[in-house]
Amino acid sequence: MVKGSPRLFLILFASFSTHLFSPEPAQYNNSPLPARDTSGKITDVMRQPKRVLLMRLGSLGDVILCTPCVRALKENLPDATVVMLTERRFAPLFKYNPHIDKILTFSREARWFSRSGMLDLVCSVWREFDCSIDLHHKFRTALLGFLSGAEKRIGYRSVFSPFYTDSIPDDPSIHVAEAHLNLLRPLGIEVEKAPPVELHLSPEMTIWAEEKMLSRGIAQDRLRFGIFPGAGWESKRWRAERFAALADLAIERLSAQVLIFVGPNEKWIADRVSEAMSYEPIIFGDMSLLELAALISRCDLFLSNDTGP
After folding, report:
1. Is the pLDDT confidence value at 106 over 70?
2. Which of 83, 204, 208, 303 has an alpha carbon 20 to 30 Å from 136's alpha carbon atom?
3. Please, are residues 291 and 202 in contact by the beta-carbon 8 Å criterion?
4. SS (H, E, C) the chain
5. What is the pLDDT of residue 269?
């Protein structure tokens, strides 16, 4: 038996025993919640949670699109401890986010019952939260919220709804960042205007990015045109020749400096764009996520595929 398994089995037994006779999960439609009180504070739909677990493991773009929900939650529950669970490689994206108090990480490559996998994760969240919010439509996060033993477990309506106490319909007619805000409704939080998608950087990282630009001969007084021609799926990649044509046009008409950014193992994509151009671009590769974000933040104009950057 894997070391630590007895504890996990006790948690499984306790979780299923706790929830076996719990009330039927609440089903929400798009009707408004009860009105707020005259002070404008959230209604007492439930005891205000003290520790909230938000779960979004990946991917890069989807993780960043969770930030409006994170901000709205913290602004409405400023005294609550907000913990974000995400895949280990995306954890730096939340490092400087002022609305997150702690980050938990998980590796997709780890086996469920390994010391760095689901076993340790379940043990670390057991009875640590009174509310969990699942920003996925995944079995793994639905089960983890259930096993956390949280009194309030919120997620999207799906085949995994039995794991939640409150399931919210996913509205495909609105942007995913706005859809996530609906998951706050069981807490009495209704957001009239969605907060912006945001990624926070340290002042030191911003200074580093500007110095990096200057060291590559990229002037401050000329337009900086950033391009990210890569994407996780080939179907989402715009043709290299079209990126090249637009880059040449920006140089000729706007006297722009063209910067090409690429992710891991995507240098070949930058080379294809560069070869199709009439001018010489400046290529940036082999960067961490925060370094990439800092460099992009120093651009005046940015063009990308449907992907995280």
Report:
1. yes
2. 303
3. no
4. CCCCHHHHHHHHHHHHHHHHCCCCCEECCCCCCCCCCCCCCCCCCCCCCCEEEEECCCCHHHHHCCHHHHHHHHHHCCCCEEEEEEEHHHHHHHCCCCCCCEEEEECCCCCCCCCCCHHHHHHHHCCCCCEEEECCCCHHHHHHHHHCCCCEEEEECCCCHHHCCEEECCCCCCCHHHHHHHHHHHHCCCCCCCCCCCCCCCHHHHHHHHHHHHHCCCCCCCCEEEEECCCCCHHHCCCHHHHHHHHHHHHHHHCCEEEEECCCCCHHHHHHHHHHCCCCCEEECCCCHHHHHHHHHCCCEEEECCCCC
5. 93
Q: What amino acid occupies position 16?
A: F
pLDDT tens digits, residue range 247-260?
999 999 999 999 99
Domains and CATH numbers, the chain: 5-187 (3.40.50.2000), 203-304 (3.40.50.2000)
Distance (Å) of CA 191 to CA 18, 84, 101, 179, 245: 32, 20, 21, 11, 42
Prediction pTM value = 0.80
Tokens coding 224: 């900086």
Cβ atoms of 201 and 96 closer than 8 Å: yes
- Structure tokens given for 79: 């005294």
Distance CA 258, CA 255 (A): 9
Angstrom distance (rounded) from CA 183 to CA 69: 8
78: which 2 tokens?
A: 């400023």
List Cβ neighbours of 244 (8 Å cut-off, separation of 6 or more).
Answer: 273, 274, 276, 277
In contact, 157 and 27? CB cutoff 8 Å: yes
Comparing CA positions, the residue from 237, 299, 239 lying closest to residue 275 is 239
Structure tokens at 61: 């773009």
pLDDT of residue 155: 96
